[in-house]
What does this fold into?
Amino acid sequence: MLEPKSVLMRPARNVLGSLRVPGDKSISHRYAMLAALAKGRSRFDNFAPGADCASTLGCVRALGCNVERDEKGAVIIDGLGPQLKESAGPLDCGNSGSTMRMLSGILAGQPFTSELIGDESLSRRPMKRIIEPLTRMGAEIRAADGDCAPLRITGAQLHGIEYRPPVASAQVKTSVLLAGLLAEGKTTIEEPARTRDHGEIALRAFGADVDRTRNSVSIRGGQELHPLEAYVPGDMSSAAFFMCAASIFPDSNLVIDGVLLNPTRSALLDVLAAMGTRTSLVRVDEQHGELVGTITLIPGSGGPVIIAGPQTALLIDELPVLAAIAPYTAGGLEVRDAGELRVKECDRLSAVTRNLQAMGAQVEQTDDGWRIPGRQRLHGALIKTFSDHRIAMAFAIAALRAEGETLVPDADCVAISYPAFFEDLEKLVER
Ligand code: S3P
It folds into this structure.
């Protein structure tokens, strides 16, 4: 076995330059799953390169679809239509909650039984949130303790439901929409707070009719999908690390090209603005329903920032890095209503607190967030990543303005979403 890679981070003076980030993870998962259900050949450029989306591709292949790369590196999927083939073995979702939860929606409507497995972290994450609605739609699902993977899903002819999920989760919404596509009648989901809407947008891009009003989405079952050729926009949640890095150095100047600007994913721009960083959007374009453009960013000094309520759900993946840079900001940061962070790849509330404290920061952890004062000086430390890609990347960024060196052990966990993260970061950092 290969030794886990450690990365030693040295302080930086500045963040300068331009880059493109890898394709969006959320969109890549959805495109791959919908391509499986669309009869014929789909092709995706800039498909997310991380291990999570590779897990989805592996499952799609195990369910009978041809999956390959063309000479340009694009992902090709030959979809089978609404009925997939029974997998010969368990479907391995690796570390990917998106794969397990969203694929369950498809498996719930198949005429066979599937087993879904995941790694240690994924096997601890709550699955009741999809088991409940999918069971109501007619599937039979068995889970360890009724909540966790491995999941055993016996598909059925589903029927549409009206569902109000207790948590705001785009994975749950998409899972139920995918099941709704395979169900008889109409399925409606009314969310407690707005979440990323790539499921709805991707369904439309593959030819399905989806109705939306504020927080409610409906789909009619039995609609046929057509294959899609698309370029996956750059992942805003990956760009967030560089944008946060640039925002903590007064002389930074950063340009990010071809990044996803979907309003349900770009709340980070508002937060950075409140922290004093000016961003401007140029060359904004629409691709298959998703907004894509170039962001330029020039830092400045702002006031205190509070992230709470519906805004928290829209920033859920960016909160670790925002917390990691908060001590360097002028006004500090308070985050509320982020209890969901406890059930991500690790308990991200505790992981962030632990690492900020290791770097000498003052931080108060609450039940569902943090209070982090600004204008602090941090020192380098030994980080604990909890094998969580976003924790490793968040503290690689915090390390840039600390005094002394910071060691990020098992740094290769970044490959879950961003295999070239450290290489790309080094290209932008001035020392
Ligand atoms: C995702 C939704 C979010 C997010 C995850 C990706 C998606 O999870 O944290 O990284 O692609 O739908 P939840 O649905 O659990 O909030």
User: Anything to note?
Assistant: The radius of gyration is 21 Å. Residues 25-37 form the longest helix (13 residues).
